[in-house]
Amino acid sequence: MDTTIAKNEAKRHAGKANEHPAVKMLARGGFVVMGILHILIGWIAVQIATGSGGGEASNSGALSTIADAPGGQILLWVAVVALAALGLWRLSQLFVGEEAKDKAKGGVLAVVFFSLAFTTATFARGSSTSDGDTATDVTAKVLEQPWGAVLVIIAGLVVLGVGVYNIWNGATKKFKEDLEAGAGSGNVGSGNVGSAIVGAGMAGYIARGIAFSILGILIVIAGWKSDPEQAAGLDAALRTLGEQPFGAVLLVIVGVGLALYGIYSIARARYVKM
């Protein structure tokens, strides 16, 4: 009985957090932050492909770009708050979600956004970190454990699965369900603006899917060869794509796609149901 009461109380408090106007407003800001980061990652990827830049095409590279801009530190602290709010909103879905898949999705995404908020705070404090170095260090520690190689391979397969899901989500326009649920009267998907948002979402999800699929394959290789250097993050995945035949063209296409996902994410801040 006590356990049931505790669960009901947790669900009630989570529901309050989920519906609080301030949390919703800041969480929508989190989608905007994600959009800006993807636009910057896409831009860096295009620079790498054209040989006009050598930044890191990852969240760390995008955050570094913001930190170096005038007023960048202040903007990063604003981003920390928005990302933390988005993580809190996703976490609340773990308690108020009706279906198991919604609860699982909320829990996983909460970890992702809280982690990104922590990384953003690191840059806001004037420090810096590299996604590639972090990924390599974590992989190295896992490989040192019993069955470490198997765990790394499983992690790589999960990331690969995320990539394939993103490609499917974009190709089938499945993502429109979130937008249409929040649009109410069906404003998204109709008219020039709606079509542009859907088009950006399609290209964006497919581009993200390609990037994550390559990253997943690299992580699997890292586990198979017991070589943590193979799992060097998103930047390494994009650079691997650029090293393939016609890689520069492919990298430009994926970079533009990631930027379009950023535009879609900004639009999503307005239309997503919360």
Would you identify the regions where 5 or more consecutive residues have pLDDT less than 50? none
Strand content: under 5%
Number of strands: 0
- What is the typical, i.e. mean, pLDDT? 86
Number of folding domains? 1
Label the structural class: mainly alpha
Give, in order, the helices and strands: HHHHHHHHHHH
Q: What composes the largest sheet?
A: none
Helix content: over 70%
| Oligomeric composition of the shown chains | single chain
Q: Give me the Rg, rounded.
A: 19 Å
Please report the distance between the alpha carbons of the first and last residues: 31 Å
Number of helices: 11
What is the approximate shape?
globular
Transmembrane segments: 31-54, 74-96, 108-127, 147-168, 205-224, 244-264
Keywords: Membrane, Transmembrane, Transmembrane helix
Organism: Corynebacterium suedekumii
Pfam families: DUF1206
Textual characterization of the structure:
This protein is mainly alpha-helical. The chain has one domain (2-271). 81% of the residues lie in helices and 0% in strands. It has eleven helices and no strands. The chain has helices at residues 2-19, 21-50, 59-68, 72-96, 100-124, 131-143, 148-171, 176-183, 191-225, 233-242, 247-271. Helix 1 (2-19) crosses helix 4 (72-96) and helix 3 (59-68) packs antiparallel against helix 4. This is DUF1206 domain-containing protein. Keywords: Membrane, Transmembrane, Transmembrane helix. The chain crosses the membrane at residues 31-54, 74-96, 108-127, 147-168, 205-224, 244-264. It holds the Pfam family DUF1206. InterPro entries: DUF1206 (IPR009597).
